[in-house]
Amino acid sequence: MELKPGTVFEIPSGFDAERDEYVVDFYYYEHEVSDTNRIHILASDGRTLELEVTGIAQEYQTDGSTKPVELNVRALFHLDDRAVRSSR
Predict the structure, then answer these.
(1) How far apart are the two ends of the chain, measured CA to CA in Å?
(2) Taking 70 as the threshold, does the pLDDT of residue 31 lie above it?
């Protein structure tokens, strides 16, 4: 898997019924999953990743009285040398 600018990962459903587990864990509210998830790598220099993450989540009222909420997060992730595993 290459983490280079322009790469897009799409995860249509936050819950995989066949595996009976969550595959996306963007915690929006309670235990509601996000769907139509898209992770777009905007920039990468080997030490920093800039990502845009989008998805759609249903508000807690599951009776259909609320419209789905669009999630849109832009974030920078920096490599912390303390988190790098040794090659032993």
Answers:
(1) 23
(2) no
